[in-house]
Amino acid sequence: MAVDDERGPGPLDDDVDALAAEYVIGALDRGERRAVETRMLREPVMASAVAAWADRLSPLDADAGELAPPDRVWSAIAARIGGDVGVGQVIHLERSLKRWRVATGMVGIAAALLAVIVAREALVPPSPPPGASYVAVLGGEGGAPAFVASVDTGAGTIRLRRVGTAPPPDKSFELWKVPESGPTVSLGVADSERELKPLDVSLKPGERLAISVEPKGGSPTGQATGPVVYIGTLLPAE
Amino acid sequence: MIETVRETPPGELDTLMSAVAHGDEAAFRRLYEQTSRKLFAVIRRIAGSEAAAEEALQEAFLRIWNHADRFDPALASPVTWMTTIARHAAIDAIRRGAERVSAAAVVIDEEMAERLAGPSTMTDSLAGRQLQRCLEALGEDRKGMVVLAYCQGWSREELSRRYDKPVATVKTLLRRSLIALKECLGGR
Hints:
The complex is a heterodimer of chains A (about 240) and B (about 190). Chain A is an alpha+beta fold. Chain A has 2 domains: about 55 residues, no CATH class; about 120 residues, Immunoglobulin-like. Chain A is about 35% helix and about 25% strand. The radius of gyration of chain A is 25 Å and the shape is elongated. The N and C termini of chain A lie far apart (about 85 Å). Chain B is mainly α. Chain B folds into 2 domains: about 90 residues, Rna Polymerase Sigma Factor, Chain: A; about 90 residues, Winged helix-like DNA-binding domain superfamily/Winged helix DNA-binding domain (Arc Repressor Mutant, subunit A). Chain B has 9 helices and no strands. In chain B, helix 1 packs across helix 2 and helix 2 crosses helix 3. The longest helix of chain B has 22 residues. Chains A and B meet through helix 1, helix 2, helix 3, helix 4 and helix 5 of A and helix 2, helix 3, helix 4, helix 6 and helix 7 of B.
C-alpha cells in the first residue's frame, strides 16, 4: 500500500502550495500558522493557494451538518465587540485607516470637481485667508454626533465640545489629526466636556479629526493604540 | 424541535461580509445568524467538549469581525473563509487544553474516525464525490491522516501516535497525500 512509500520529502515544485495545504488542514503548529497568515497578507500567491485549498477540501464540512449554538455565545461576542467602550461603535484602527484613505481620496475627487466648476464660473477663490475657521462634527458610524470641533487658525486654537458620552473612567479620549497621507498627529487628550487647545499643527478643510480610546492620560506611543470611535471631516465655517 | 432555517439568498453573505468589514454590527449579527449553526457543527467535531466548542465559536466570530477586511470574495466563498477561521479557532482551543490526552476523548475520536470512514453526506455534491474518490485513492492510512487532521484537528504528533510513525514521517506523508489529492482532483 501507498503508506510504505516513506522516502524523504521529494523536491516540492511548489512549496507555497504544500504550506497552504498544511495550513488549511490544520497540521501546522501555532508559529508556522502565524507565518503563513503573515505571508497571506503580503503574498497574493499564498492567499490564493490557501483559498483554493479551503475550497478543495470544503466538501468535508458537509458531514458536520448544522448545530445551533446556545444564545450565550452571541451575547458574549456582542459584549466583546461593542462593550469595551460603551459609546457608539468601535471601529478597529487598521480598518479605519483604510477607510480614511478611501474617504480622503473621495474628498480629493470632490475638491477637483469643485475646482473645475468654480474655474468655469471664473470665481476662483483665493487660498484660505489667515484666521480661517473650520468645523468638524465627529460621530461614530451611523451614530449621533459625539464631538463638535471648531478650529480658529487665526487664534491658533481648537475648541472641542463633547455632546456624547464621557470616556470610561479608566480610559481617555484622544484627538487626532488624520492627514491625507503620513502618520496621524495627536492633538491631545479630550476628556473634559469642553476643551480649548492650542493648535500647533496646520489643519485644512478635507482633513479629518478622529477620537480614539486610549489608556488614561493618552496614548503612550504617540500613535493611536486603541479603537477609533469617532471621525469627522473639517469643513470651512461660514 | 424542528426549526426552519431560512435559506440564505445567493450573494447575501458576500454583502454582509462587506458590511462587516466596515464595522456594521447589525450585518455582523445577521452573518452570525446565517452561519453560526454550520460553524458550530464544524467546531464541535474538533473540540473535545461543549465548553471548548462554545469558546472556540466565540473566538472564531471575533476573528471574523476583526479580519473581515481580509476576506476577498474573488478568492473564496464567505462560508469557506469563515470555516477555515472556525476550524483554526477550534484547533487552538484543543491544543491549549489537556482535553485531548484524556482517555475519554480518545475513545470519542476513535468512534468519530470510524464514522468518518462510513457513508457520507459529502457525496451529495459532485465536488464531494470527486474528493471522496480521490481520498479513497490515497489508501486507508493516508486518507485517515488527512481526514482526521481536517475534520478533527489532529496534530502531527497525535497522528504519529495513532499511526505509530515518527512525526517527521507523518509530516512527509501528509504533504505527499495533499499533493496527490490535488493532482487527482485535476490540479484545480
